[in-house]
Amino acid sequence: MRKSAFACGLLATVAFSGPTWANESVIKATSDPNNWAIQSGDYAGTRYSTLDQITTENVGQLKVAWTFSTGVLRGHEGGPLVVGDTMWLHSAFPNIVFALNLADEQKIIWKYEPKQDPSVIPVMCCDTVNRGLAYADGKIFLHQADTSLVALDAKTGKELWKVVDGDPKKGETGTQAPMVVKDKVVIGISGAEFGVRCHMTAYDINSGKKVWRAYSMGPDSDILVDPEKTTMLGKPVGKDSSLKTWNGDQWKIGGGSTWGYMAYDPDLNLMYYGTGNPSTWNPAQRAGPDGKPIDQLYSMTMFARDVDTGVAKWAYQMTPFDEWDYDGINEPILAELDFNGTKRAIATHFDRNGFGYTWDRATGELLVAEKYDPAVNWATGVDMDKSSKNYGRPIRVAKYSTFKDGKGADVNTKGVCPAALGSKDQQPASFSKLTGLFYVPTNHVCMDYEPFKVSYTAGQPYVGATLSMFPAPDSHGGMGNFIAWDGVKGKIVWSKPEQFSVWSGALTTAGGVAFYGTLEGYFKAVDQKDGKELFKFKTPSGIIGNAMTYSHGGKQYVAVFSGVGGWAGIGLAAGLTNPTDGLGAVGGYAGLRQYTNLGGSLTVFALP
After folding, report:
1. Bond into 497 cis (ω within 30)
2. CA dihedral 418, 424, 426, 430 (to 10 degrees)
């Protein structure tokens, strides 16, 4: 078979790409458990620490060691980084960065406060959050709300270079934590709610020069897929795989945001990330020329990409022809699991659509796809029969379709579970090497969903749906659970109910403890074995940040941002009261006002 010109060019690029190495400074920093040198704890995204000074026996004795206010009141996602004696932390817009000296009473070493046009604020979907900094080669990398990617000298805070990744006037914004791999810093972009065609881009860490950009949809040369070598469920995707699944030129305003946490496998030289919803939220406006559903690749997709070239090794679409805004951006976690006596190198992803997926991370073979919240009702399961024409696709329930054969506009589909913010949103899960289980912060929320016709205008909202959210009915009455998940069986091991969604990232440690925060502001520690609550402390504001741990001076610390906001807390953060505002979240989480208030601060705990 004659190879395409694109494929030949790809082979030439790969042949001269040099040896496969992760960034040595990141590897060195993350291999020392005293540090927390990457947002996810390690390249695998496990959010697991081998520190074990704090255990299930003594965690109940934790006390506040120190606190730090960022001076910003909007939602604080992500968490700080620690390498040696220095901690770096960030704020929500205007994305202030602080460097603190842990060896000198947390003295502020430097402060970087970017000057951004506040007109970016109304363009940011679901609060003015930022998901964290990246560290490598003596540099700190910040992705600003206005899409600027900035490299700072880690010791002095001096700006080394800055590059603009997108245009807020078109609806493009930046909230993602960058990831540094080899000599590249990789960053995605937000904007699906404004009809942006989103992308993932790699920049040279020393100069800021663009190395490659992979769009979420469009021509093969734009999305960086090889028609013959890139696979989905073991088969080549073929020529124009994305273009064939869109109606005309609609892919040009197709969405597919790329703002979730990423993972990287140094042995395979592959990075993993998910893409978001197609634009608009009204599925009838995205139907094919015959009025029937079409997949709209590569929205709602998990990608495995070669870091040197950006070319996709494999892809898998979780929710073809999305009808509910089930973004696929949630983090992948890389682990080794035993399947029928065979150790498999896998990637696991807890999707917004309510299914927990596990793939072979080298090939993209689908190993597990099961519900991780029993309330999920839009689909009964995923077709796992490899001989079926629908293999790997969700088995939908017609009652909960918002498309309804193209007649969904102005029809209110009621009782859909999960809600648009998913059974889990951005809040990252953790994989414990101690138990071999995943610990997942979840939402237990359903919705009514009414699409309406919307016109596209650059820089204006392109949503096209009205939502109402509420706790999953016939359940514990709350809006969240913290669960332990068996990744091989695809089963919940235990589930701890919470009054509100658990919007905080999880942390597990070798001490047998799992940590997370609640929207009311409680920081909690539970036993990894059974979920028994061992510790809780009420922080100054609701927690949507990610728990982290480090050691300094021979003492283990655990820390978390508090600062209510994000999609779940947008009512409080932005002062909204109309129940359908905040894309439906304001009404669903109205009760939060009785439990917490605004505030951005870091709370650090240690044993006495």
Report:
1. no
2. -170
Q: Under a CB-based contact definition with an 8 Å cutoff, are residues 422 and 327 in contact?
A: yes
The per-residue pLDDT for range 311-361, each reduced to its tens digit, is 999 999 999 999 999 999 999 999 999 999 999 999 999 999 999 999 999
* Cα 250–chain centre separation: 25
The two three-digit tokens of residue 525, written as one number: 């520690």
Q: Hey, which residues are catalytic here?
A: 325
Element (H, E) at 29: helix 24-31
pLDDT tens for each residue of 115-166: 999 999 999 988 999 999 999 999 999 999 999 999 999 999 999 999 999 9
The DSSP output letter for 421 is T
Rounded to whole angstroms, the Cα distance separating 297 from 256 reads 9
Which DSSP state fits 442? E
Closest CA to 602 of 562, 556, 547, 554: 562
Interatomic CA distance for residues 228 and 222, integer angstroms:
16
Bond before 280 cis per omega within 30 degrees: yes
Instruction: Report the Cα–Cα distance between both ends of the chain, in Å, rounded.
Output: 69
At 517 the three-state DSSP class reads strand
Euclidean distance between CA atoms 544 and 38, whole angstroms:
18
Q: Of 238, 315, 250, nearest to 280 (Cα)?
A: 250
Cα(41)–Cα(313) distance, integer angstroms: 25
Closest CA to 178 of 153, 142, 152: 142
Q: Tokens 């990246």 sit at which residue? A: 134
DSSP 496: E
Residue 472 has phi, psi (to 5 degrees) of -55, 125
Run of H or E residues at 300? none
What is the distance between the alpha carbons of residues 339 and 337, in angstroms, rounded to a whole number? 6
**Could you tell me if residue 106 is left (phi over 0), alpha (psi between -120 and 50 degrees) or otherwise beta?**
left
Bridge-based pairing state of the strands 48-49 and 507-509: parallel
The residues pairing with 188 across neighbouring beta strands, listed in sequence order, are 200
Pair of tokens at residue 125:
């979907």
Q: Which two tokens stand for residue 218?
A: 């469009």
Q: Are 32 and 49 in contact (CB under 8 A)?
A: no
- pTM of the predicted model as reported, rounded to 2 decimal places: 0.95
* CB burial readout 416-436, b (16+ within 10 A) else e: bbbbbbbbbbbbbbbbbebbe
Residue 258, both tokens: 């790329």
Strand partners, 416: 447
Beta-bridge partners for 561: 602
**Dihedral sign computed on CA atoms, order 33, 34, 37, 40:** positive
Residues 6+ apart with CB under 8 A from 285: 453, 454, 464
Tokens describing residue 563: 């600062």
The phi and psi torsions of 228 (rounded to 5 degrees) equal -100, -25
Q: Hunting for tokens 């009760």 — which residue is that?
A: 591
Rounded-to-integer distance, Cα 201 and Cα 211, Å: 8
Q: Are 334 and 45 in contact (CB under 8 A)?
A: yes
- How many Cβ atoms are within 10 Å of 368's Cβ, its own excluded? 21
**pLDDT, tens digit, for every residue of 59-79?**
999 999 999 999 999 999 999
Distance CA 576, CA 587 (A): 9
402 near 283, Cβ under 8 Å?
yes
Q: Are the C-beta atoms of residues 498 and 480 closer than 8 Å to each other?
A: yes
